[in-house]
Amino acid sequence: MQDIEEVSSTLSDRITALSESQTIAMAKKGRELAAQGHDVINLSFGEPDFQTPQYIKDAAKKAIDDGFTFYTPVAGYPELRQAIADKFKRDNNLDYKPENIVVSTGAKQSIANAVLCLVNPGDEVIIFSPYWVSYEEIVKLAEGTPVQVTGNLENDFKVTPAQLEAAITSNTKLVMYSSPCNPTGSVFTKDELYALAKVLEKYPQVHIIADEIYEYINFEGEHASMASFDFIKDRVITVNGFSKGYAMTGWRVGYIAAHKTIAAACDKMQSQITSGTCSIAQKAAFAALQGGNASAIEMRDAYHRRRNLVLELMNDIPGFKTNVPEGAFYIFPDVSYYFGMSYEGKTIQNALDLCMFLLTDALVAIVSGEAFGAPQCVRFSYATSDDKLVEALRRIKESLAKLQ
Ligand SMILES: Cc1ncc(COP(=O)(O)O)c(C=O)c1O
């Protein structure tokens, strides 16, 4: 039999064009070094280090015992969709009905569903950059054309209304962003979102995916939703989920709120790909919402403290230029100061080289900004213990001092 690796036509163009998630690739390398006995501190993960709160775990155990082991409606149990609609009212003052809500296997699937339902081949999708790694790849899967619009560090990496307007063409179908943002931690204020919404009001063919998965991890102001502006609400797909706020990454529950036509399309898409998400995870998600957001607030306070700690430690490292993240659990410094410097004959050409150097020399795993559309930056996740953060930053400082 012919070796499959020789048959280059075996795999589709679609999958060949797709990049492997760099965050996952870096985490894999970190794990390999750890398996060889090295004491690697992994700051590449995009997930809370906290356990899922006990009351949520208990609800999942009960769901199994109560026999919730069957397929669920594709868009999710009706009571969960109602609880999500209630959450939108409680937290965001947004009116939705269960028919507007689709529960999916993580917010990642929610985004993929929406993009696949809206984007035709050749449609342009404006992605606020720096952006979460999967946005661009999901757009490519839908055969859309990603158009990056880049916010400046000096403006907290936030895209301005003028930048947005300049990027819109007659082919623009969708605009995507996250706030609080992965990877920059920037958070749009309500006024900033309003100014962007006023631009979008002029282009009725353009839809908006507002990724609000880090809603509860906001240290400074109030969370603002793009869907709160009535004049564009019908064109906004709000994405949220349980992974970050409730420390439920492994449970895989995300959701959208959208106009019922878009929600019905996402339901149809999902029905042919995965059906409804796990019945037990849905019961756990329902319990999470019933329990309010006290545990989310407790975790947010811990991230807030760690953010301050990391900022303080980074102040002491020459050449790291950063904004002050207001949410999520990442910090995204510009490290271009080190480009062109060398150690033991090896020159740091870019952020990826710097990440590799820090992984092998400092045994600290972080992620290169290339994957997020910002090749001069690196992303640190501070969703880990204070002790580990202190030790990681100490090692990084020591290693960087070797570069000449
Ligand atoms: C901005 C953003 N959106 C969506 C997701 C996906 O979340 P989920 O675990 O619910 O698929 C992530 C996960 O890292 C993220 O950072």
From TrEMBL:
- Domain Aminotransferase class I/classII large, by residue range, is 39-396
Write down the PANTHER family for this protein, in alphabetical order: ASPARTATE AMINOTRANSFERASE
Needs which cofactor?
pyridoxal 5'-phosphate
Q: Give the InterPro entries listed for this entry.
A: Aminotransferase_I/II_large, AspAT/PAT-like, NHTrfase_class1_PyrdxlP-BS, PyrdxlP-dep_Trfase, PyrdxlP-dep_Trfase_major, PyrdxlP-dep_Trfase_small
Q: Which Pfam families match?
A: Aminotran_1_2
Which family is annotated?
A: Belongs to the class-I pyridoxal-phosphate-dependent aminotransferase family.
GO MF, one term, reads:
transaminase activity
For this protein, the parts annotated as crossing the membrane are: none
Q: Return the protein name.
A: Aminotransferase
Q: Which domain of life is it from?
A: Bacteria
What EC number(s) does this enzyme carry? Answer: 2.6.1.-
